[in-house]
Known about the structure:
three-stranded antiparallel β-sheet; 47% helix; 17 kDa surface antigen
Amino acid sequence: MKKPILALMMAAVTLPAAPALADPPHWAPAHGYRAKQGGIAYRTTDNGIRYWRGEDGRYYCKRSNGTTGLLVGAALGALVGRAVDTRGERTTGTILGAAAGALIGKELDSGPTRCR
Length: 116
């Protein structure tokens, strides 16, 4: 008796519940990408920075925050620091190389343009 109950419990746990595929009611507010990006016109520059004009008439921009450059720079800096520091445990060279590589990588990924 325990085996069929256990099998039914395992089947109920492993089978995902099917989502309800229905349209929202007509009075519900819009959600998602279209609602948030409704009337904004973006202009993208050659270096990948997107500019748009806000409702207050000011210009805004969105650009990379440098996370990818930070991670790649830290990894490469750690490898270079470990190769340069050849005496002892080489931990100091690895840590200093990772820190320097992270700072350089973030600056390179962010780019020279400032958002105002």
